[in-house]
Amino acid sequence: MTQHLFDEATRVTAGDSCWRGRTSDDYWAFVGPFGGATAATILRALIDHPQRSGDPLSVTVNFCAPIAPGDFDLDVRLVKANRSTQHWCVELMQGGAEVATLATAVFAERRPSWSHQPTELPQAAPFDQIRPFPKIKASWANQYDFRFVGGDPDFSGAKKDAPASAFSKIWIGDRVPRKIDLLSLMAMSDAFFGRIFHVRGELVPFGTVSLTTYFHADAADLAAEDVSRVLATADANIFHKSYGDQTGKLWSPGGRLLATTTQIAYFKA
Amino acid sequence: MTQHLFDEATRVTAGDSCWRGRTSDDYWAFVGPFGGATAATILRALIDHPQRSGDPLSVTVNFCAPIAPGDFDLDVRLVKANRSTQHWCVELMQGGAEVATLATAVFAERRPSWSHQPTELPQAAPFDQIRPFPKIKASWANQYDFRFVGGDPDFSGAKKDAPASAFSKIWIGDRVPRKIDLLSLMAMSDAFFGRIFHVRGELVPFGTVSLTTYFHADAADLAAEDVSRVLATADANIFHKSYGDQTGKLWSPGGRLLATTTQIAYFKA
């Protein structure tokens, strides 16, 4: 069986505290690898780690410097383990001691509890009834099948009287369908176009600085959903002094909230 | 001049990579220090650090284990510095090598840019027209002057037909007024009552696992606001398998979005 490009792109080779990975041309953004692929690679090293127990609950990835094409080391450290949670710290390094990405993660063995989901699945036309977003220059984006339900981007740069909405509602699946797991959910939580592109209606220099994703489904929940796409929403609260935020939610088609995410990003405008 | 209790509670003594702090009985929660005070103490060590440049942009605090009353060490490490950003990692330790809190922070020298704040200040009755929330058992909460504009908590435990709303709108100030700075903003971003208390209408075992706060104002912006309270909103998306999330926004009375925050917390219900 041929491996999915996503699994190829996020492959890691096992070490004890030091793991290895390699950037993928298939998930390349403008000046470095797609941050979602980097985050998923880090998460894969943690999930595959022999000391890991439980499922990812929270992952924060701080993008410290551009990652050059090629190999990188992952220094993986279990900082603290309790009865039901684990706290990890990962440093992605290139060229010896230069840290390019700094991540922390919390894993938890999630026990049954009272359940309640106040947030409701947004209304959306079915995936099959929406035209796929056309291919663009960044290779990573072409690995996904984006179908905009609302807030389609207009990057024409046409001057507008007022900023456009920062809100988008999108179906996201892998272009070559792949069952959604915690790794692809991690990557998809960073797969929104920069909110600054939407409000400005043009592409400007942009880079995510810090990304935090919470998983609201564990591996068993996600396997039971058995889906190959998510309905996702993204929005922004503010753009100020060269940094703007983004909030996002990722849903199973059946209405389960799978993950929430937030990030802060640099922009030049 | 007598020092404000908050400054006393978040005091640190300088080291090179290792700083020291001490828990405060004045900011105590049920089984450990108020997480917001811990976060602010970590942030103070970073702000006071001789190598620091710029202002905090993003802070993530992972609460790994309860902090015992008394002294703690802060292992502060500048992981990566670029021209305009710094990436820090802080480990709070007690009893030698036991890590109780793991934090990362991004500092940035924020340059002027295009500004846009899509999110609007929520409507709220003025602070002076609302009765302060009564004192409760947790000492930290009594250091704040909470005035609920909406979503007042009812912890009576009276059985309800359906879960109550997770949304709250509150004025938050220090009980002894203190000008809002980046430190108190950090602490206040963790000063909401657990969302699970609101939806269940009762106090249940609860603990924040990971907290992320983004600052949308730098020190100069905040000094210019010159305010001693914020209008804040908090909400939740989901409670599932013993963990629930929280999102929050903190505004200056004049309508500037100062910070956004999110956290994931353990609960037993």
Notes on the structure:
With 269 residues, chain A is mostly beta strands. Chain A has a single domain, classed as Porin. The first copy, chain A, is 14% helix and 38% strand. Chain A contains five helices and 13 strands. In chain A, strands 1, 2, 3, 4, 5, 6, 7, 8, 9, 10, 11, 12 and 13 form a 13-stranded antiparallel sheet that branches. The longest helix of chain A is centred in the first third of the chain and has 13 residues, at 35-47. Chain A is globular and about 55 Å long. Chain A starts with a helix and ends with a strand. The relative contact order of chain A is 0.16. The model of chain A has no long low-confidence stretch (mean pLDDT 94). Chains A and B meet through strand 3, strand 5, strand 6, strand 9 and strand 11 of A and strand 3, strand 5, strand 6, strand 9 and strand 11 of B.
List the helices and strands and how they pair.
The structure is a homodimer of 269-residue chains.
Chain A: H1 5-9, E1 12-13, E2 18-22, H2 35-47, E3 55-63, E4 71-81, E5 85-94, E6 98-108, E7 144-150, E8 168-174, H3 182-188, H4 195-200, E9 206-215, H5 219-225, E10 229-235, E11 239-240, E12 243-251, E13 257-267
Antiparallel strand pairs in A: 1-2, 2-4, 3-6, 3-9, 4-5, 5-6, 7-8, 8-10, 9-13, 10-12, 11-12, 12-13
